[in-house]
Amino acid sequence: NEKILNERISNEKIPNKRIICELYIRNLDITGQGTVGLEFQAKGEFRIMLSSKECQSYGKTNALVLDIGENITRFRKRNNNDKDDILASTKKHKALLDKKVKRLYWFSLDKKNRRLRYGKGPMQSLLTIFSYDFPPKPSKGIDKYAWIENLRYIAVCGISQEDLNEKSVELKFWSLPVTVDLPPYVIRHKDATLTVLETGKATVIDNLPEECQMLYGNVAGIALNTPDFSDFSDAIECSINTPGMICYEKLKKKSSTFGTPNPKRTYLRVTLGEDQGNSPGVPFVLEIWPSGHYSPIHSHSDSFAIIKVLYNEIVARYYTGLNPEDQKCYNEVIFKQDQITWISDKLYQTHQLYNHTGKMCVTIQCYQYGEKDNDHYEYFDYINDGNIIQNFRPNADWTFSEFKRLIRNEWEEYKYITDKYSSQSKRRNWLFTKRR
Ligand SMILES: [Fe+2]
């Protein structure tokens, strides 16, 4: 590419040739629309460009350019350095290049709404930093921006082929533009209403990636308390709150799981079934969240997941990434009992779960790697107290059958003792013996 450009413009004096040299990397699936993301630690200013021809376009050829700089970021209508061809610009700090951290920068073209969007982090409208609306199509006469509908080829400028080959720059592509975000709530078909459809506050499973659809069927109908153990949730709560009982003791041992001891940053993991090699750890996990407990901020190895609240409710906080700069959540939602949420490789990937209520909460999560994921990274990454990214292998405190059996035995024993010894001191004595 550089050679072609050099030949074509050898006689012209072009300032900063590196930044206008176009390296074509792929096509849009549909002309005039799509979202292109580049994830990397930028060393210097760069551009993402959309063109109607796969050739060096420097000069006066129409093209769309997102030009991200250290002091200013611009949308351009040609890939040059001319002031006249700037569509819009911003000096907003958030819109500038972050040289210190790895970041996903994305550029969305929406021909139907005649809109450009630029954001950092997950490709969603909530994270749009800067946008530009082209003037509406004139009812009469020439539409001077009709050419945006013919844009098809994606190029990068200021990024080398080696960096792309070695994957130090990763391309993330989405065939649709960033418009209305898919909400984190998944509702049953029978709960969908015209209002929900209009406001977009929840989605039905059919709108989600195929991987999530497969997982949904497995957990949608599941409940915690079943006729064979109708007070299972009371038994777990008792086990969490009573010294000597299994949940209480296990939680105590886990307080350093994520670095410096923190008894509140713990939860219990009970696995269902075997690791089938297609998810980080066992695909189905019951997670038990004592009152006031939370997870660290973590990401999910780019896997897909469906999470259902089986008992009580939980807060989910979403983050743009794991960098220290990203630790302000951009969205916080509450999922109540029986509500379902989802995670994909592109959306809602980095979160923290927090039980803000006065009693325990139980969720079931199921995970799966995406079809194109050949790396199968077996860890969840999280950020520790020292702002360092660490990983943990999703492990099991118990298998489900083992857990249910232990809780049932313990609960029966507890109820028996409670009936037998009405006095607190005798009960405490029993627990003390048990702990030994
Ligand atoms: Fe999670």
What features would you describe in this structure?
19% of the residues lie in helices and 29% in strands. It is an alpha+beta fold. It folds into two domains: 2-174, Sandwich (Jelly Rolls); 185-418, Sandwich (Jelly Rolls). The chain is elongated, with a radius of gyration of 27 Å. The structure holds fe (ii) ion. Fe (ii) ion binds at residues 298, 300, 351. InterPro entries: RmlC-like_jellyroll, RmlC_Cupin_sf. GO terms for molecular function: dioxygenase activity. It comes from Anthurium amnicola.
Coarse shape: elongated
Task: Estimate the helix proportion, in percent.
Answer: 10-25%
CATH class of the largest domain: Mainly Beta
- The CATH homologous superfamily of the largest domain is called Jelly Rolls
- Sheet with most strands: strand arrangement: 13-12-20-17-22-15-14-25
Radius of gyration: 27 Å
Number of domains: 2
> Count the helices. How many?
9
The structural class is: alpha+beta
The unique ligands bound to this protein are: fe (ii) ion
Strand segment count: 25
CATH architecture of the largest domain: Sandwich
CATH topology of the largest domain: Jelly Rolls
Outline:
The chain has helices spanning 2-8, 17-20, 161-165, 194-199, 210-219, 232-241, 246-253, 400-420, 424-435; strands at 22-27, 33-40, 46-51, 64-68, 73-76, 86-90, 103-110, 115-120, 128-133, 153-157, 170-174, 185-187, 203-204, 268-272, 284-289, 298-299, 304-311, 314-318, 331-335, 340-343, 350-354, 361-368, 380-383, 389-392, 398-399. By secondary structure, the chain is α+β, with helices and mostly antiparallel strands. Helix 6 crosses helix 7 (246-253) and helix 6 packs across helix 8.
